[in-house]
Amino acid sequence: MAKRDSIILQIVTAEKKVEVASLAERLGVSTVTIRKDLDALQAKGLIIREHGYAMLANPNDVSGRLAYHYDEKLLIARRAAELVPDEATIMVESGSCCALLVRVLADTKQNVTVVTNSAFIANYVRDSARVGCVLLGGTYQRDSQVMVGPLVRTCAQEFYVDHLFIGADGWIDGVGFTNADQMRADAVRSMAESAAEVVVLTESEKFDQRGAIPMRLPGKRVSVITDEHVPETWYQSLERSGVAVTLA
User: Fold this and answer.
1) Quick one: residue 143, left, alpha or beta (phi over 0 = left, psi -120 to 50 = alpha)?
2) 1 with 70: CB under 8 angstroms?
3) pTM to 2 decimal places
4) 43 Cβ partners below 8 Å, 6+ apart?
5) Least confident window among 60-69, 72-81, 169-178
6) Which residues are within 8 A (CB) of 3 and not within 5 positions of it... i.e. 6 or more apart?
7) CA distance 38 to 6
């Protein structure tokens, strides 16, 4: 992402809603240039344009969360894409890093099939003929735009893949990765039954947070791809837990 785009995202995520004229003044460019930048960011689903303003999308859904630490998430997604060869079939759970992974695959790979419970992800790459999506059935959660419930397990059992890519809401030393939502955590467990390895995609700040629901993936090979700012204490905690760490 261009440096000015990154600065715009930092300002908008910090202030939630910003005047276009104010952005132009702060960045030392014309309002015409800023409007072009904002149009490009809106096309990526990162912001929403209103008359004279730029604002974040709904922070409770994936499109709103994409804007936070976008550059770090994109690096994580690109590193994860190295695990996926052309013509592979993978599983992908919801999350902003996961959405960017599928976008990278759509832009760089050929004939990849993505099995997902995320309606957002299926829609996010609908313009690409390089990626096909299989949307698992279930009960639809509006904000997170994912399918949850027992139907997810029933549908996921029809597949077996090398990699399941998931997000996380936090980490607890001695417990593992956590989720903030019980139904989404259960969906992850259901999908993990059909994968040889679970790959967690998350920015390093999540290691200072914790969700209430442990993922609990016993017997599964688990690895994580995160950014280089992960604290050394958490890096050691991950290794003690048998989680392989890759820094993007």
Assistant:
1) alpha
2) yes
3) 0.86
4) none
5) 60-69
6) none
7) 11
